[in-house]
UniProtKB/TrEMBL annotation:
It comes from the Bacteria. It comes from Dyella tabacisoli. Keywords: Acyltransferase, Transferase. This is N-acetyltransferase. Pfam families: Acetyltransf_1.
Length: 155
């Protein structure tokens, strides 16, 4: 496994990853597949634009295994009081293998070396991610619409 800076060429993979992440949510909708794909492409474009505009100082990283992309990891560490995990996403076959745990622990270790914590947001419906974050020492510090802001504090 390795992390590398995302490039324009990675947008195709990231768009596909976004579609995979939202597939279950869209499955029950009676839309034709072409309509679903157009919707997903538009939503990905909006999300990507939001991330690039609001987290311009973040590292936008691709997670690779044997030179093939398996996920993305967006980390803001320069401009904020705490490090912020903006986004972490893996293809389904790479989930629950410890990849996310290792990325988060490495981020916690790096943040602690600067005397800083790590913040993130999680959708309240994403119980698996919330359990992971809680297991790694994150605590809910705010409710923001459908999201919870969680913080791991350096001690």
């Amino acid at each position: 496994m390795r992390l590398r800076a995302a490039t324009e060429r990675d947008l195709v993979f990231m768009r596909e990853l976004y579609g995979v992440l939202r597939a279950d949510e869209l499955a029950p909708l009676p839309w034709p597949n072409a309509t679903k794909q157009t919707f997903l492409d538009d939503q990905f474009a909006l999300q990507h634009l939001h991330f690039v505009r609001h987290y311009a100082a973040a590292d936008f990283l691709v997670i690779e295994h044997d030179h093939s992309p398996v996920g993305r990891f967006y980390l803001l560490h320069e401009a904020a009081a705490d490090f912020m995990i903006v986004d972490i996403a893996l293809l389904p076959t790479w989930r629950q293998l410890g990849v996310g745990t290792e990325l988060i622990r490495a981020t916690q270790n790096r943040a602690s070396s600067f005397g800083r914590g790590v913040a993130l947001h999680v959708d309240q419906r994403n119980t698996a991610a919330r359990r992971l974050y809680e297991r790694l020492g994150f605590q809910v510090v705010a409710e923001e619409g459908p999201y919870q802001r969680m913080l791991w504090q350096y001690e």
